[in-house]
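Exercise 4. Each item below gives a protein and its sequence. For each, produce the structure-token representation.

Item: TF-B3 domain-containing protein (Pisum sativum).
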Amino acid sequence: MKDFVAAEEEYVDDDFPWCLRQISECWDGKPLIIPLFNNSGKTKFAYKFSMIDQDFGTKVTDYVTLNDSNDNKFEVLVQQKENNLYFTQGWSELHNFYNLRFGAWVTLVYLEPSRFVMRLKDRFGKDVVVPNYNPPRKYTLHREDSQNHNIFGLARFRETLSYHHENGYFQHAFVKWLDVSDVTSGYLAISFNGFGELVMTSDCTEFSLVDDSGHKWLCTVDLVFDSIKYFKIGGQWQNFCECRSLCEGTIIKIGAPKLGINRIFYITLKVL
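Answer:
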């Protein structure tokens, strides 16, 4: 096995400190081994493939799925900048899901243009515990547009490669301290008065909730008339709670970009 330290590369630019050289050609079924943290101990939000388009660009699709040994699936965006390819949006979710620590590595094995298999190890070379859910977890990205693609179909580099919520997504915002019911019943309660009546209507039956990794969760909406009038958010809300280990007292911020019916809402666990 190659010396991993020797695989570090010079700084790409201010947005991408400490990327990695190509270690092996994964499209031949050989593993590609990647460090998940930079030198400061922070998770890297993008991984660069240092290889030319002619060799690799035609062998991966815009979106690829990373599978682990328990069939959990993570969709990530593949972007191109100059002659390099990057795993970007969705990549940082690995840190949250596997509770990874500094020094962790992932081995990727190419299976087909849209799918890789992952094997994760900690800094001591021991296998990382892979959560076993029934059914397995599936993280799907929100796809805002299909523009900015190059001749190979890969999304071109636009601004920053790592996903982040735009300020405009929170033109109208709702902050809540989650209670026991919100995280255990499978439903999130949002008061009708204020935020609810401004950005939802009785005609709204479902929407996509996009988290701060860029993954989307399809939620259902019911308007409930009880002692108080409120919106009952279900669908994949419970999956989101479980995947992010939400508990009573967690603070969430939900944003909507416009008044009226919104088909897409945005959520963050960090309230600024």
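Check: The first helix runs from residue 53 to 56.
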